[in-house]
Design a protein that fits this description.
Elements lengths: L2 H20 L3 H15 L4 E8 L4 E7 L10 E3 L4 H8 L4 E3 L2 H7 L3 H6 L4 E9 L2 E10 L9 H22 L12
Length: 181
Amino acid sequence: MTNTNRALIFRAIERLAAIQQKDGNADIVWSEFERSLTEVFGQRLFTVLAYDEASSRLGRLHSNRLDINPVGGLKRVTQSRWSDEVLRRGEIFIGSTREDIKAVFSEYEVLWSIGCESVLNIPVRKNGVTLGTMNLLGEAGLYDHADIGLALVFAQLAVSPLEDQVQRQCGLEDPDVMEQV
């Protein structure tokens, strides 16, 4: 890692810490995460999902592409390799190809249409419990050499804003609230 890369990473982390000290507005905080993660990892699509294990649902809290991934969308979690790795064990998932995208996302054709052929799913965890995920999607192979340790640092910075937003607005616990995502 070059000094330039280290400086860029440090500035991104510093901005995230500063914005969380100043502002509790979820849109501002997630927009700063999006900016910082784009600088460090790159992506075309960035979403943040809250996870409710009791109801087996994911709720979308943020998206940079509201036209294809609207905020508020809910997904029922089914048993899969992805849910076991990411949600239950808290492991980062890297998908490198179109086939990896197809295996994980039901809306894979829409993702392909905007150039998303790889994914970096970063679980946000506290005390061994997955609170949600930050999801970065981009061109094929983009995350093959991603710094997993650095992704975990970003995940820890996301714990507080994710918890705060879920407590304020998320309807994951309401079994009657469900839309197709």
